[in-house]
Specification:
transmembrane; 691 residues; 13-stranded mixed beta sheet; 5-stranded mixed beta sheet; single chain
Amino acid sequence: MKPAWWSLTPYRLRLLSRGAFLLLALATVALALYVLREEKQLSYRNYQYGFSKTQAQIAAKLHHPAGQLALLNPRTGNDNLVPLRPLLLPYTAIDFDDQYKVQQAVEMAGCLVQYRDGTLCTAVGSNPWAGGFVYVAGSFASSELVAHARGEDDLSLAHRVRVVVTLRGQTYRWIAPFELLGQVDARPEAGVRGRLTGFVDRGRVMPGARPVRDFRGWIWQDGHCDTVGPMGPVACSKRSFFSLRLPVGVLRDALFMKQKLVWPPADLDRIQVHVQVLPPGEGPPLLDSNSPEATLPFALTDLAPLLLPGEQLRLRKLPDAGQPDLLQLTGVADEPYQPSRLISSVIRRLAVAGYDQPLEARETIATPLGSYQLILTGDVRSVNRNLAVVATRVSWFVGAMLLAIMLAWLAIEIGIIRRITVLTRRAASVSRTVRGVGELDQIDLSDLRGHDELGVLAAGLADLLQRVKEDVAREHIRAEQEKDMWHAVGHEIMSPLQSLMALHGGSDDDSSRYIHRMQQAIRVLYGTASPSEAFQSTTLQAQAIDIAAFLQHVAANAPSAGIVEVHYQGPAGPLWARADEYPLEDVVTHVLRNADRYRPAGSHITLQLQASDTAVTVAIRNQGPAIAEDMLDKIFEYGVSDQAESGALGNRGQGLFVAKTYMAKMGGTITAHNLDDGVCFELVLQRAVGA
């Protein structure tokens, strides 16, 4: 029957309670971190999608004629369009004679300035050879148009358009009354089409004045009413659209000057245009471009709301040649809530796939006057910032869970396992102070013995210390005995070797060579811990030897070692190399035994000697099976053999390890490679000067 202290109940209770609460706390934290990581990954993917979407939206806007108009006419978005200034269109010119083409051109280009009473667009074409004209197009609401009769000198009796253009110190003024073309259609829904004939405006038109030849203008009025007042058709307001081509002499003269033409004009933003649409009589203008209530066209700064927080948009003209960026916009974070620094730091360290890669998108926008490069740079820090804001708000729930776990653990720890903890500290102090067998005798646990949890654990610890003491003593005795045995074995082997050396020590006795090798092997292994350590710690004495005579001697004595048909191929005269003769003979013998083990019966082994200016190469070749390619380097490691029964046959995978170790200590190398019909081992030694 097992004693009471053998029960694991005290340990199981302590480990179970602490482990359960620790696991629960770790699981809570791990769950929170896992959710944060998944949310970060999801947020990063959403950000990548949003980044791509933002880039596509910005590129689409800039590819659109309105975006190209903004590229060609960069402004801050706070410009005051009083007086009106012409814009550079992404078109060569405007087909001002066709109502629908003009409307489509100005609406797609986005050059229309919105007024309370209508719209206006003033622009120049992208090609100066279109004539150097300034185009004006717009719309207004009025009653049915009143036409000017030809030959009538008083222009105030009809609807008319007054235009004033000021540039480079000169001012051009035109007054263009509406002249009806063709017969008026009696149908109410039919519209009205007419010409705007331009005259030089000198305050009044002189009798017999001729129109300006290159001034062109058209006006179209819709037949439907925009609004109908309580008085019926009298209050009917109809929408009219007009287009003008203004012949500005200064711009046209610049086309034919000798100096290089610059287009658009460098002072384009300083050209002032004032357009008024006047009703018959002396009433207020139906449309005035100097009206302060105007909505500007699309500007590059209007792209800012498309940017996510931290994203940066840059626009530059190609080739930039070191020029500053045309525009730089940065998305602004609108989150006033500040996240916790600790949570922000944790989220930054959560690794997600691809998060460290910078986000940057580039696209080229082609315009009639050159190409522009769009560079959109993402800011993945906004992912951390937004996630940290959300995580900070819900971190109180995780903190409350951890606090509840800690309070439950403290209640169980203090109320149940307090004494077990005291005993655990005592056991830990014992394990830290014990260093040897004698110190174990100094540990006394008798004061802790008893029948409670502490006493059971103390009794078990005392028994454990006794067993440790006995095991340490036995191990010490075994180590001393093993050491004495190695010394005795070495001494017993060395004694008969000394006697054999006395009997066969003559230089003409072939046996003396093998006795010397046995003595060296005993000295290597004498008193060492393992054969591999012994061989690696051996010191060899390399000196100049006649390698040709050495190999001839090995080939001649090979039958004495049981290896027949060993042939030498090489120079007959002396050839000197640096080596230690006995270890080198061990190397060659190990390789020859491997070759003899694998060669077919009756085949021969070749010792081939070659020399260069600095090295001597010994190639040992035999016929037989090839060595697996993945084993060509491993066969030189200690204990490696390709035979499953190598240990039973006395082959412990040691021979080639000894060969490689000895060759390295002699400053040489040994390698193996397969031949068409067998295997070749190459021994490379340093060449020496003859003695």
